């Protein structure tokens, strides 16, 4: 459920520096925040926390400014990425590399560990609206195709960004949505934004070669049919319309042979499945057959040779680790609620 983060008006805007991070300064990170008081002051921000993420919906009729300097970073090393979706008005981002104006329908990713300056400008209609999401940096990285610099920009034509914004808006507005479902949607939105950033960086670069397209087709075919124990080079070459010799040449680009690629992916799938499941829900034999092994004995030997534990011991270790994490988190959650 969403809740107020801060509201500024003529009566309290001089305290905006103390108010913008919310109760107990739980949101954002340290920096200098101020508003333009040459016109009527009207700023409202609401938040919804989803696990480690926070969706913040801000509307204003007032210009706002924020600066984060090297001094702020030294004193507060909070490492966050912020995904900004501009609905109305403009966001002007400046750092040592230059300036970027982000308009309606466009997207910006900022990082808190590099200095920057932001100005939020209302549109001609006098309104400024932004939906943004704060994401811990270590969680953001897994959704990015490659490490970004201090910021990343995507223009208004991106369907991925439009859909990601719609998903976050739905989560923000739907009070009945359960926490687990909300988190899945939020992480999917982050992944879409990461994909859009990756595509944006590739614009202007050379188009994908024919061999690269063929390799993508081959890897997709293998992924789709990975659980089939009969998967072989003949099946892939026929399904993708290439010769087995050309298939071998394509796979050289992965640094693995066909067998190495298939078995490593099957074992990785099995490891993820074991770590996320309970013995009473799914047996080890079912996992083995589900990822394409023809026998549990072969599965156990392969698994132990790669991961150093047999599947049963690995699952027991994963369950113990998960239980310890829950026990460690419970007191912190209880303290936060009180």
Automatic annotation (TrEMBL):
PROSITE patterns: HTH_ARAC_FAMILY_1, HTH_ARAC_FAMILY_2. It comes from the Bacteria. The keyword Lipoprotein does not apply. One of its GO terms (molecular function) is sequence-specific DNA binding. Residues 216-317 form the HTH araC/xylS-type domain. Pfam families: HTH_18. Signal peptide: none annotated. Keywords: DNA-binding, Transcription, Transcription regulation. InterPro entries: Homeodomain-like_sf (IPR009057), HTH_AraC (IPR018060), HTH_AraC-typ_CS (IPR018062), Tscrpt_reg_AraC-type_HTH (IPR020449). PANTHER family: ARAC-FAMILY TRANSCRIPTIONAL REGULATOR, TRANSCRIPTIONAL REGULATORY PROTEIN. This is Helix-turn-helix domain-containing protein. It comes from Novosphingobium aureum. The lineage of its organism: Bacteria, Pseudomonadati, Pseudomonadota, Alphaproteobacteria, Sphingomonadales.
């Amino acid at each position: 459920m969403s809740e107020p983060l801060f509201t500024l008006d003529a009566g309290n805007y001089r305290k905006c520096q103390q108010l913008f991070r919310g109760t107990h300064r739980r949101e954002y990170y340290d920096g200098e925040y101020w508003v333009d008081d040459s016109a009527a002051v009207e700023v409202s921000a609401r938040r919804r926390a989803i696990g480690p993420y926070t969706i913040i919906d801000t509307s204003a009729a007032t210009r706002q400014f924020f600066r984060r300097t090297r001094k702020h970073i030294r004193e507060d090393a909070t490492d966050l990425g912020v995904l900004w979706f501009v609905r109305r008005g403009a966001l002007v981002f400046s750092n040592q590399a230059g300036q970027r104006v982000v308009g309606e329908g466009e997207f910006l990713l900022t990082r808190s560990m590099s200095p920057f300056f932001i100005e939020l400008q209302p549109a001609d209609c006098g309104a400024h609206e932004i939906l943004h999401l704060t994401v811990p940096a270590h969680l953001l990285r897994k959704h990015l195709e490659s490490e970004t610099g201090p910021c990343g920009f995507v223009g208004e034509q991106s369907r991925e960004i439009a859909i990601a914004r719609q998903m976050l808006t739905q989560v923000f507005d739907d009070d009945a949505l359960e926490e687990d479902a909300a988190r899945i949607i939020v992480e999917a939105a982050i992944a879409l934004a990461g994909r859009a950033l990756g595509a944006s960086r590739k614009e202007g670069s050379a188009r994908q070669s024919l061999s690269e397209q063929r390799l993508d087709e081959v890897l997709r075919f293998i992924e789709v049919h990975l659980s089939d124990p009969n998967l072989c080079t003949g099946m892939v070459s026929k399904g993708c319309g290439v010769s087995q010799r050309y298939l071998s040449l394509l796979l050289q680009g992965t640094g693995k042979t066909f067998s190495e690629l298939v078995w490593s992916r099957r074992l990785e799938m099995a490891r993820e499945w074991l770590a996320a499941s309970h013995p009473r829900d799914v047996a080890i034999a079912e996992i083995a057959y589900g990822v394409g092994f023809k026998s549990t004995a072969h599965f156990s030997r392969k698994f132990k040779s790669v991961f150093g534990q047999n599947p049963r011991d690995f699952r027991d270790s994963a369950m113990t680790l998960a239980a310890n994490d829950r026990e460690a988190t419970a007191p912190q959650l209880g303290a936060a609620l009180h």
